[in-house]
Fold:
Amino acid sequence: MSQVALDEKIPNNVNLSQDKRLQRALEKWQPAFLSWWREMGPDGFQAHEVYLRTAVSVDPKGWAQFGYVRMPEYRWGIFLADPIKDRTIGFGDDYGKPVWQEVPGEHRNALRRLIVTQGDTEPASVEQQRRLGATCPSLYDLRNLFQVNVEEGRHLWAMVYLLHSYFGRDGREEAEELLERRSGDRDKPRILSTFNEPCNDWLSFYMFTTFTDRDGKFQLLALAESSFDPLSRTCRFMLTEEAHHMFVGETGVGRILQRTAQLLREGKDPRQEGAIDLPMVQRYLNFWYTLSLDLFGGEISTNAANFFAAGLKGRAHEKNYEDHVARDGVYRMEVLEDGRLVEKEVPMRAAMNEVLRDSYVEDCEKVVKRWNKHLEGVGFELKLPSRRFHRRQGIFAGHHFDPEGRLITAGEFEARKHEWLPTEEDRAYLRSIMHRPVYTPGHFANWIAPPPRGINDQPVDFEYVRYNEA
Ligand code: BYC
Structure:
């Protein structure tokens, strides 16, 4: 293939047309990616034309070009944010030294593992969401789902680029394995817990894109601080795309709340009208928020301490902290000792997962505040549960807490979990109101309000997804 044709097919700013080694690695990997996409990507919509944005360069004009594309023909590209001149290491033991353009031998395994873990979440989320097209509330939402999906595909490419370019043969093997694991599969599951949970209805999808994609935002912010400059630059560009995913989630839940609040103000029972009642929204929030808290890892973590000391993974917006070495500092956190919650001082470096979780929780608080604006006057407010509630990773896993964070017994938890977490009945109800997809332009399911405006200045009733037999 000519250089121009290659750059046209795979938009990039990594000099792909001159890089024979990368070309050879991709020659094998790209067809495997496409067959994974056909097998595990959006079910039933591979031949549809979707109004998508494609990144063709990193400058503001090029990174968001819109047009109809069939998803398997989407141009998944490879982009790094522009380099920062004379960038130095921003934290850890090597603070102030020049950043690395190659992988230092002593950090090779740890870096590869971080990149693989990040990369694994991207195809996992596509797999989790692959059947949602059959129950979509509108063409607008269907298009947003597919935009999220193709960009997760691109984020996988971003991590695979790093594995192919900087990790030799074992990098290529890891890249292949990223296409072999499957979300929820008993024998070859995805690496992180939350990415093996089914995401089969649109309330879950909006909660996932609000809370789980927001974990993505904070993990990418932490990796954007990395001393390994290609990783930092890759993550910086990914963050520009992540913003849209969180927009899809936050406005999706917001529009559900708007519809339900409207019915409540009219004195109607949302369930009688086929809409979603607020306690159910709270249960889904509790579920996806707490699963996403798990993605930050243990509160006290040697891995996190080592990543920080080595300069591999920092804190979100590291420049806002005073002490970038954090060798002597401590972090006060509540831990369980002899069945009681007590405050304890933990060496700061060992608490880095919790520090990142703090930034995340603060961001989530703001989202909930914006959601509650839709509920003014209806007598119900959504709330984030305690970060101890319903945890499966870290020091609170295996213990029981109520949403206020009070320690309770397993029996008490069992007796009340139907108030706090989605029930079988909730799932059946959502299936019943979502079983019929809405594919008519400008029409919306009865359980969600239309958005105030369309995508890229197109009207709300634009045909965002269409089927052309050509
Ligand atoms: N599930 O020291 P610990 C995104 C393991 S989302 C399963 O507590 P560490 C996206 C851990 O691996 C962002 N296992 O944790 C969003 C370790 O295993 P080993 C993804 C878990 O290592 C939506 C052991 O438990 N990016 O982009 O400090 C759509 C003890 O670990 C979990 C990243 O995650 C879990 N939840 O931190 C699409 C960034 N938590 O060593 C995309 C890269 C912990 O005993 N990853 N374990 O075998 C990391 O920075 C770290 O791997 C983690 C874990 C923060 C995830």
